[in-house]
Task: structure prediction
Amino acid sequence: MLRPYHEVLMRSKLDSLLPYSLLAPTLLFVTLLIVVPIFQAFLLAFQSADGSFTLANFQKMANDTSFGDALKFTFLLLIFIVPLQVVLALVMALLIHTRFKGHTFFLYIYAIPLAISDLAAGIAWLSIFTERGYLNSILNQLGILEKPFLFLSYQNLPAMFGTIVVAESWRATAIVMTILLAGLQVIPRDYFEAADVFGANTLKRTLFVVLPLLRPSLQNALIIRTIFAFQTFSVVFALAGRVVPVMAGESYNWYVTNRNPGIAAAYAVLILMFTVLATWFYFRFLQTSAAEAGYD
Amino acid sequence: MNKQIYTIALIAIVLVALVACATPTPTPIPPAPTQAPASTSAPAPTTAPAPTSAPAATKPPEPTKAPEPTKPPAPTAAPAQPLVFLSTQNVPVEEQEKMRTVILKDFTGAKTDFIADAEGAVVDRIIAEQKANKVSVGAIGVLHGTFPNLLAANALEDLTPLVSKLSDRPIVKEFMTLGKLGTDKQYYIPWMQATYILVANKKALQYLPANAKIDSLTYTQLAEWGKNITAATKEKKIGFPAGPTGLMHRLTQGYLYPSYTGGLVTTYRSDDAVKMWTDFKAIWEYTNPQSVTYNNMQDPLLSEEVWVTIDHTARVVNAFRNKPNDFVSAPAPAGPKGRYYMSVLAGLGIAKGAPNKAGAEALIEYLTRPNIQAIYLREVSFYPILESALPADLPEYVRLEADGVVKQSKASDAKVALLPIGLGAKGGDFNKVMQDTLTRIVIKGEDIKTVLNDQANQLNALMTELKAPCWSPDPPSTGACQAK
Result:
């Protein structure tokens, strides 16, 4: 029996509306909690207290004592931490992916830092690295060090910076690993079997099969990790105080301590700009085809 | 076209659904469980029991129980309106916890919500509420220097009628006068006071320079002392609270600058200031470089990373509490212009149009009771604002610390510096000038004169913007306070 024409029409209309209605809540969420605040941050950054448009906030930001250092240290952290974490996370993900006996145990261990707040992690690492902290105590007990070594001395910036790299790597490698592991798990087994048939050893299989197929996940992981790196500050705050300023930390200080939302917003705009640039860079140079990304 | 209408309708439906999902939770919750229904006829909250009993004579260990109310466990007489008590004091989490669970435990005047935050946030909230004519804050507990901004924004209730009700307690007269903010009305009631003192590990005492006494130390001798300690231990054992939330800038403002230059803002780039920074750099030679991570000095004192330090009484007290036999307290060192120390006076005010004014008044009455002031000292190391001598039954750690506080105020060359006054929400910007000066001169080793010149210019710009006149120890000014 044929259904009346208008019913069919109605049905197809509803079908075409379905995707929009499903997207609507997310759209609403993103608009209210992300797009609107970004717009407001821009207004704050480019307006003076009386509402006229100005670049004064940016000038004051750039002339501040800590601005140069904040830029320098943010990028240094980025350069040191992101590659280190991606390599570490890749190794961890590959290990877990071999599904050796007890691999879930390690997966849980690796994931612990994900559940710990930034600042708590920073304070935990502070108690490890401080002069009478755990690390110095252990080294002293073992007879390796006679006097405590000052990791957190501003006179020894490489050591201080090193502690930050270690703490940040510990804290945020897990998220990268999770993304990469998820990516690994969707690679069809057929590829590995084919590689085996052609006699590829583990190294070759990893280099020529796994890595290229993992590129979409790597791209995502890099983007997320880089964005996070621009936002890092609680760990740095706990371990290095004002000696190692970073951009997000400066934004926080200007807002909370100095009560100057304009300059805080200027920093936020700058961070946004760098983040967009980095994301563009990754899209441009780690381009994945639709097929690779799994959208075909 | 139809399609668009459908889309809009659908989005609208989703929106309505979202709103509907979001609202139901908060509404049906019944009022706070503490409200005992029978207690509505209890005596008016303002007439809190008169604290006629002697300060701490009767019940030494836990003298908190108010004498009259019949039902001590439940905070009964709470009127429907809760009382918001907004404070810039007792911000560290441990202190907030003490405030809620110990100090305010027996307050029956209102169900009190204690909120502690940075000065800027507190000032902003109070003034914004006044502007919006939607006041939720009741009692305000802030430093002396914060009140002028609140008064300028017409955000303070006149407390003159309350003064007579508090006449039975011996509040220091000078403090009461300060509470008038230069007017003939009382705008705040003194709450508590604190200061910064020198604390030393007893192991350090043997290295004191030959002619130096710990109770009359100078900054030059402090440098020598540090040098001796480093020579003997190969470690740098002086410490300063120069971490991100440490109070180092207060030491610059109320101790180093006045002791060397007799002022702060006006003398910011004077020759005396150059001498001060030169001397301070000499002290910093023997200062633990981890100082840049120290927010309070009690932890590094206890771990012995640091042997000698100067910090806020509330931030060193745990050293005396945990190891009373290891530490001594002493006055802060003196400079060429005297032994300046900072007297931190906090007061209690009431926001204009407060929703629960009676509750706020009862809170002020409660917090200024001698026995509560004693608890304050015991729990968070803030000192009473009462004339009477410190209670005799203080725990040992409080006495150990109080020893230094008393010696500091009684020293023959002692002079008082006040906290910045009238900076309000810009207090952070002001502190940043001192923090940046320290970072540039001491940490980065930049040229002292250049840095002082730069920073003095910033200071002048800030003070001009605020139109804030000078405060002690700077000489009074007609216009904005300026560095020469």
